[in-house]
Write a structure and sequence with these properties.
By secondary structure, the chain is an alpha+beta fold. The chain has one domain: 3-Layer(aba) Sandwich (NADH Oxidase). The relative contact order is 0.21. The protein is globular. It contains eight helices and six strands. Bound molecules: 3-iodo-tyrosine. Pfam families: Nitroreductase.
């Protein structure tokens, strides 16, 4: 079918690109959340943005489990903290713990209960056809990573804070979220408003010269 390409007048292109950059520069990963609720409609709109992402063979190999139920959040906190205790007690290894030290993180994850929403992002390693036969999925981590980027940008643009949380391993999420074996949890996105007087690590982002070359 013919493409309907909604372009932008040339004079507006750079100002728009720069306005988007200015907005995205304000995003910070937040680890201390207020218990202020977030309407489900905001989460739905952001997940719909994620669902517009490109994916291998357009298979859209993702499932976003959006959790606001306090009981389920409690179970997730317990599961994550159990893994994190082992991680910080040595499973990570010294090199990894050294790399993380400047972030000030530890095995306590109260935000998993305080934040109004958790979005468990599952990758469908394979799918099923109408007859229930296995269908191979292509470029799954790339596709889910791109969709997650869209999701984080959409939530930020809507005025919400996020944390890309990755307790490892995350198998415990399958049971709590009721997901089948063909799905693997990749990221647990924490969503909400920052707690008043929330602190964040003093970090910077690399300048263009360090992240790009032009040939
Ligand atoms: N999953 C752990 C450790 C952790 C790992 C990385 I790489 C980070 O950038 C941040 C934390 C945790 O969430 O504490």
């Amino acid at each position: 079918m013919p493409l309907v390409f909604e372009g932008v007048p040339e004079a507006e292109m750079l100002p728009r690109a720069e306005a988007f950059l200015a907005r995205m520069r304000k995003r910070r990963t937040v680890r201390d959340y207020a218990d202020r609720p977030v309407p489900r409609e905001l989460i739905e709109a952001a997940v719909r943005v994620a669902g517009t992402a490109p994916s291998g063979a357009n298979q859209q190999p993702w499932t976003f489990v959006c959790i606001s139920d306090p009981e389920r959040k409690k179970l997730i906190r317990e599961g994550a903290e159990e893994e994190e205790r082992a991680f910080y007690a040595g499973r990570a290894g010294e090199e990894w713990l050294d790399a993380l030290a400047h972030l000030g993180t530890d095995d306590k994850k109260p935000f998993l209960e305080t934040a109004p929403w958790l979005i468990a992002i599952f990758a469908q390693r394979w799918g099923f056809d109408a007859q229930g036969n296995k269908v191979k999925h292509y470029y799954v981590p790339e596709s889910v990573g791109i969709a997650t980027g869209f999701l984080i940008a959409a939530l930020h643009d809507a005025g919400l804070a996020t944390l890309t949380h990755t307790p490892a391993p995350m198998n415990f999420l399958n049971q709590i979220c009721g997901r089948p074996d063909n799905e693997k949890a990749l990221i647990l996105l924490v969503v909400g408003y920052p707690k008043e007087d929330c602190l964040v690590p003093a970090i910077g982002k690399k300048p263009l010269e360090e992240i790009a070359t032009f040939l």
